[in-house]
Amino acid sequence: MDLGEFEADNSVSCRLASAIPDVCKTEDCCLGIDEAGRGPVLGPMVYGICFCPVAKKEDLKDLKVADSKTLTEAQREDLFRKLDEAKSFVGWALQILSPNTISTSMLQRSKYNLNALSHDAAIGLVQFALDSGVQLKEVFVDTVGPAEKYQEKLSQRFPGVEVTVRPKADSLFPIVSAASICAKVARDHSVKDWNFPEDLGEVDADYGSGYPNDPKTKAWLLKELDPVFGYPQFVRFSWSTTQTLLDSKAVTVHWDDDEEDGEKAAARQNNTSMLSYFKAGSKTSAQQSNTHQTHRFFTERRLQSLATL
């Protein structure tokens, strides 16, 4: 699987897709949706769809697709290769949600939780298939949240398409199993070959599965914690695992907001308020650049100083 487009900038989300089989544009099709990487604190979450003509369901069964969680990495790779080779009647598409996208979405002022993010990714992929000319008749989805509400939401969004939302759909419907395999293979590749844009030098790549309860992941998070800047964008800052480590191990930061007087709180503890770093000074930007070298944390993220808030 070629993830070059995502690897070129893994700070943002990316959509990858196969060619659309001609038969999918002329015959009624079924489509499955599943995700990989919902729980890990490291790496992206990947939503995948797979589709084929309803009349070709038995052909899909012959490929012996199964829930990706029940397969070894080698088995998933082999099945993805078979799915990709069956391009005369099988198509797929992926929405790779970067850790940075997940974190900034969940931590923004207007709350946007993981379920909403997942629903929108799934809806976007179904719409992509329709816009690409796929004649969708049936959609099968592994549930996120209450199955009945999710099914009603999708049915209203896509009238004329028969939607089925079921727990464990990846083990019930081969077309969902196929989507599960596509998503899992993409996530495995992205995590294994993660490109750290922060230019951290030699980074320990032995970070395990990325799940919070994995001992290797726990050890890696402790080792790579920067007391000031936290973690690279490979880590989901919106996870409680990350926030707990930052609260206990990193430098204390006082934020100014409407609920607490950060300036006074910082003064009481003989610290500097975070907002003070953003206040306009008497020096011009040119003067500041001559006397102060910007930390690479800001330059690597293309952040610039503002004269006013």
Automatic annotation (TrEMBL):
One GO cellular component term noted in the UniProt record for this chain: ribonuclease H2 complex
E.C. number(s) listed in UniProt: 3.1.26.4
InterPro entries reported for this sequence: RNase_H2_suA (IPR004649), RNase_HII/HIII (IPR001352), RNase_HII/HIII_dom (IPR024567), RNase_HII_hlx-loop-hlx_cap_dom (IPR023160), RNaseH-like_sf (IPR012337), RNaseH_sf (IPR036397)
Catalytic activity: Endonucleolytic cleavage to 5'-phosphomonoester
Alphabetical UniProt keywords: Endonuclease, Hydrolase, Metal-binding, Nuclease
Uppermost EC category: hydrolase
A molecular-function term among this protein's GO annotations: RNA-DNA hybrid ribonuclease activity
GO biological-process terms attached to the record: DNA replication, removal of RNA primer; mismatch repair
Domain RNase H type-2 stretches: 28-251
Cofactor comment text: Manganese or magnesium. Binds 1 divalent metal ion per monomer in the absence of substrate. May bind a second metal ion after substrate binding.
Hydrolase listed as a keyword: yes
Family of the protein in this entry: Belongs to the RNase HII family. Eukaryotic subfamily.
Protein's name according to its UniProt entry: Ribonuclease
